[in-house]
Specification:
Layout lengths: L2 H18 L3 H10 L4 H22 L6 H22 L4 H21 L9 H18 L3 H8 L6 H25 L9 H21 L5 H21 L3
């Protein structure tokens, strides 16, 4: 896959991820898996995703809910490390079909549970943090789970995005360090190319900020869901 194509997808994923509060990794992971190994894909996506969380915190700054951040972030950090360790020990022959199956489950969630709400409890945050962290470490995405659980706390939109970004920064930092120390490298691109991908995701976030108050979040979830359904089928029947 060319540098230009990845930059374009980074722009699209950065925009959708900002509009919905999740989606950057769920778009980038299956796209990059078509050309790169699972560890390389997760490292490169993780870098873009990490900066995407920086954009959420910076563009929608509205104060941080530290109790919620820590309840999500601490178990998320630990289980992201667990999931990231498994990446280098598990064959992509099994990882990619499993990822496809999880994406189909995720799409079903988007379609049939758009108004699903969970109780705003400490146990909810701890469980959600651990589950989303594990999925982030192993498959590169967990933001949809995190978003669903965080919505139970009924935060204002700007504070919701800021808090979601801060939680993501904690979890992504843990898994990126684990990928790196486990020996994963992105060998096809230099720092300049990766910088271009990050900049493209920032431009996508800027565009999303301009329209976030005018387009229903549910609409974007269904668009992403339809796209992921097609990619999921490809990963199941034609695994990398």
């Amino acid at each position: 896959m060319s540098i230009e194509a990845i930059a374009l997808w980074s722009f699209i994923a950065g925009g959708i991820g900002t509009l919905t509060g999740f989606g950057t990794a769920t778009i980038m992971v299956p796209i990059l898996l078509l050309s790169f190994s699972v560890p390389e894909t997760l490292l490169l996506t993780g870098i873009i995703h990490w900066f995407g969380n920086v954009w959420k915190v910076g563009l929608f700054w509205s104060g941080l809910r530290w109790r919620i951040i820590l309840l999500f972030g601490i178990p998320g950090l630990f289980f992201a490390w667990v999931g990231a360790r498994l990446v280098t020990e598990t064959s992509s022959m099994y990882l990619t079909p499993t990822l496809g199956a999880l994406l189909i489950i995720y799409v079903a969630y988007l379609i049939f549970n758009q108004h699903f709400r969970l109780p705003a409890r400490t146990s909810t945050a701890l469980f959600a943090g651990g589950l989303s962290g594990f999925l982030c470490g192993l498959f590169g995405f967990g933001g949809a789970i995190r978003s669903a659980f965080l919505s139970a706390f009924a935060l204002p939109k700007a504070q919701y995005l800021t808090t979601l970004g801060a939680i993501g920064l904690i979890i992504d930092s843990g898994r990126l360090l684990t990928y790196w120390f486990e020996g994963t490298r992105v060998v096809n691109f230099g720092f300049a190319s990766i910088g271009l991908f990050v900049f493209a995701s920032f431009l996508g976030a800027l565009v999303a900020k301009q329209i976030i108050d005018h387009i229903p979040q549910q609409h974007f979830r269904l668009v992403v869901g339809g796209f992921l359904l097609l990619v999921a089928a490809r990963l199941i029947f034609l695994p990398v």
